[in-house]
């Protein structure tokens, strides 16, 4: 697609591109040199700040891996609860009954408008004041609650857009076959919408994994990012090294999830062709996918 | 059939979600069976630190162990729980822990919510500066300095309200982040209790880099937090603390944990009943 | 129930003003940075394309908290970048804007990229046939249409940005989430009221953005 924006470079354009490349490379090299020399100058590249992550397996077994487990646990719980809840809300918003559609819409819009961090903080205070959930689980519950409320409403929108993207004929045909509304939704519309939505749902997982890190700083949830406090307290305040390593772990996990979403999308698209289902109006679904991806 | 499979998957997910919410209910006893839950800090070298081998070390930790032993709990019967500063009152009030030993200074606001045994240590708000920096000799010097402390801490509040309102105060998430700034000369001093600072200064990675200014800007009496109204437990802990001082354990522990930094600690405070 | 509002103890409007300023400056910044990124990603220079792709994939997959802390810890504490701020409060705010811009820019870039995909290839081909250069094709023909196609996704990005400003509490920019935490601790008995106030505050900030941009999306849509 991109190549449509410019002509195949001729000799002059080629020379110009080489020049741009060199200039760009030079700028990046200067920036990298500046950062690295400043780091070295401030003694931040000293070996003893970085080696623990390579030589001392205990950094991993005591701090990083348990933290990662908590992060993944919270993310998995959140998506597992948010998925059915979001589907329910999404279907509710498509209901023919005004008294279902309007309140569900209000709930969805409400939780989409509020920062997930505030939801988590509120949930934490709620559990603390009104329940006997022990302190071992309270931060996890608070984080999961916040993530579920927010992501269920995002998923609800994805589901709604996915169902709306299907050709009207699908619903009409099942009605003509004598299916009830519930059957139409469950057996005809949802299964088709799921395939359209899957990539968007997987990329929503990336958002969830990242958002678990919100629980660390302000709620005391012992997820991956919050482990930096204990690591830096033990290894001589090697903050830069620790944050770098933790960021890399997040990036790798999320890159894997993103790649998964991409492969899923490809496979589903191929599946479409072989099934020879004619779906003319895909614009809506594409919008839904875009929306969920951009809804960081 | 394809759609049957999809609905099975959806049902399975729903069941999983339900079981996930159902499991892991809470107990609110503060002691589970023959074990005892104690709140400590996990990230303060010298006081309460989770070490890479998964064990706990520090003065507060050893005090907690001593007190627990006097209460009849052997060392392997103690479950240490992380007690971040903002969570300490909640942990005690909800009964998640039996008591909290976590650089917990006694003050009137906290006394409204929990009771304190002790004090078992007298600390002061102080400054950690670079070893070659001698430009801070009195509190007034701070007004022209860049300070760092932890977000929402009492020390940060003290600086803003009383000690040096004109100082440029940076509040970060943790002490290590402040230390990075101090090491890189972006801030001139890290301020909090001298006991905490001594813990950092005496770490081998920081040997010779930092020193305490020794200003003693406030009195922080460390107490052991217990549930409000639990006078029986408070009395028992107070007895244990008195015994700890009289049998020489207190002196031994203080020397062991604060000795290397050259920190001039105060004599054991008298336990208030 | 809401009497804590009258006590004068909390600067609620001040906190939301900081939130609004954070959101506004970062929105402007990330629109510019996102456009620059997308220009790199579709440019004829392979190195720039590689940089754009790598940057987007790395930053988008990093938790915002890490990005913001990296700005404070890496740029300020280690490299001494102050962005012209005079004291830590000022510097913290500017760094938060920078971090939010760096992060949100990747989402703006991705939205614009899908917008470019909606522009019919004939448009760019016609422009090239007229002899326009890559920069001209992009800035005069393709991007204006791409922008109009992605107003709705962009609106979602900006709303997400407004909500993400709360993360700046991690480097103690004195915005709304920071104040809410303090108020929850001090006013535990008025928990629901505190939450209601902040929820309302954010809805005041985000809902109009959504409505206005939704209306704009309809008006601006390219009729084909």
From TrEMBL, chain C:
The chain crosses the membrane at residues 12-39, 190-217. It is a multi-pass membrane protein. It is found in: Cell membrane. InterPro entries: AA_ABC_transptr_permease_3TM (IPR010065), ArtM/GltK/GlnP/TcyL/YhdX-like (IPR043429), MetI-like (IPR000515), MetI-like_sf (IPR035906). Residues 16-213 form the ABC transmembrane type-1 domain. Keywords: Amino-acid transport, Cell membrane, Membrane, Transmembrane, Transmembrane helix, Transport. PANTHER family: AMINO-ACID ABC TRANSPORTER PERMEASE PROTEIN YHDX-RELATED (PTHR30614:SF37), MEMBRANE COMPONENT OF AMINO ACID ABC TRANSPORTER (PTHR30614). Belongs to the binding-protein-dependent transport system permease family. HisMQ subfamily. This is Amino acid ABC transporter permease. It comes from Streptomyces exfoliatus (Streptomyces hydrogenans).
